[in-house]
Amino acid sequence: xxxxxxxxxxxxxxxxxxxxxxxxxxxxxxxxxxxxxxxxxxxxxxxxxxxxxxxxxxxxxxxxxxxxxxxxxxxxxxxxxxxxxxxxxxxxxxxxxxxxxxxxxxxxxxxxxxxxxxxxxxxxxxxxxxxxxxxxxxxxxxxxxxxxxxxxxxxxxxxxxxxxxxxxxxxxxxxxxxxxxxxxxxxxxxxxxxxxxxxxxxxxxxxxxxxxxxxxxxxxxxxxxxxxxxxxxxxxx
Length: 237
Ligand SMILES: [Zn+2]
Prior knowledge:
The chain has helices at residues 5-30, 32-84, 91-171, 177-189, 212-220; strands spanning 195-199, 202-203, 225-226, 233-235.
């Protein structure tokens, strides 16, 4: 156990170097879930676009099927009118059925034009699906790579933190229990920095200027001096 306050502060300084690094590494670890979410959302939007392209193709194909049925109906109607012509008694009735049959065939022709246009659309949609499929596959590969990188990076950082925690244990037994408890309380509240140097006549943590009396006390190292504003321990380098 280091006996003088000066020794205690020197050891706290070593501890502080380790702890500052631990806090820094933990902050970057805390950012990993957000990074993961951002990467995964890129994949999700590629999946949505691919599904939408498939959906569009289905819609166009359904419309095509519908029109094919309509064309068939018109053809059946025309045939029915033509068959009915065999049974009619007057020229007038015969001519009326010819007209009906012609109308049905004209409708069928219009529907077939629409079907041709839809077939072009189907081809276009199939191409769009292939494009989206390619984008999706690329996105999947990239996202997998990025997630692997993140996992590796995260494992390395965790290993570093473990190493630093072990190194920390070499110093903690040398600090008086009450001093260590105080230091730990401050470091938790002040995001990793509990011990700061005196900068001129000011706190190296928050910048508060100390009265000359306090500056002298810090320099004398006879008692632990805390910043009134940020509660950190002040030492002279
Ligand atoms: Zn301060």
